[in-house]
Write a structure and sequence with these properties.
Layout lengths: L9 H4 L18 E8 L2 E9 L14 H14 L6 H10 L2
Antiparallel strand pairs: 1-2
Length: 96
């Protein structure tokens, strides 16, 4: 897994400034986001960054970290990026 500390998109750069706690350390006590970018040649992880100040478009369920990671793994299995039609067919067939 390749890790990157730089934001990948303009969206992340437009987030508000991170609240500073004591000694200039960011205060993430109200929460933060971690972004996982899936690419055909691997993954990048960036963050933490402040939570966006917009309302989510759809309802989301709050879960523990283990369950959240299971959701991430399931999403990546359901949406393969290897580019082969056969792999995408198999993923779709397995999802039924």
């Amino acid at each position: 897994m390749m890790m990157e500390n730089k934001p990948e998109s303009d969206e992340m750069e437009s987030n508000p400034v991170v609240p500073q706690g004591q000694e200039g350390i960011p205060d993430y006590s109200q929460g933060y986001q971690i972004v996982i970018t899936c690419k055909p040649d691997g993954y990048t992880v960036s963050g933490p960054s402040p939570l966006p100040q917009v309302e989510p478009a759809e309802e989301s369920e709050e879960v523990d970290l283990t369950t959240a990671l299971k959701h991430v793994i399931a999403i990546t299995k359901e949406n393969p990026l290897d580019g082969s039609d056969h792999a995408q067919f198999d993923a779709g067939y397995a999802g039924e």
